[in-house]
Design a protein that fits this description.
- By secondary structure, this protein is of the alpha+beta class.
- Strand 3 and strand 4 form a beta hairpin.
- The protein has a five-stranded antiparallel beta sheet.
- The longest helix is centred in the first third of the chain and has 18 residues.
- It starts with a strand and ends in a 6-residue tail after the last helix.
């Protein structure tokens, strides 16, 4: 059975700046896993649809950037559902780290 994880990351950046920082932070994250997994991120306004493939598993996620929070919902396939308790804190920390990126000069 698949499992959904929902992570909410509060911020005080406003939607536009939070979206910029998240989008900017996803680039290096994708590059660090290049060759180990495939990923695709499609932005529509402040919403992103994310698809990740690794070890024959496909993970999908939706990211919603709001004025005071970022909401991430990840759908884990059956084989990865057991790792939900390890993935959720990683998502929380990674998202918070991305929101701490320096402002654009």
């Amino acid at each position: 059975m698949s499992k959904s994880i929902v992570v909410t990351i509060p911020h005080d950046l406003g939607a536009a700046e939070a979206r910029r920082r998240i989008a900017e932070g996803l680039g290096p994250l994708q590059q660090s896993f290049a060759g180990k997994m495939t990923s695709d991120v499609q932005w529509t306004g402040n919403h992103a649809d994310i698809k990740v493939g690794a070890l024959g598993q496909k993970v999908t996620a939706q990211l919603e950037v709001e004025a005071n929070q970022v909401r991430v919902e990840v759908q884990l396939p059956f084989l990865l559902a057991a790792l939900a308790n390890k993935i959720q804190p990683y998502l929380q920390k990674s998202g918070a780290d991305m929101l701490r990126l320096p402002p654009k000069k």
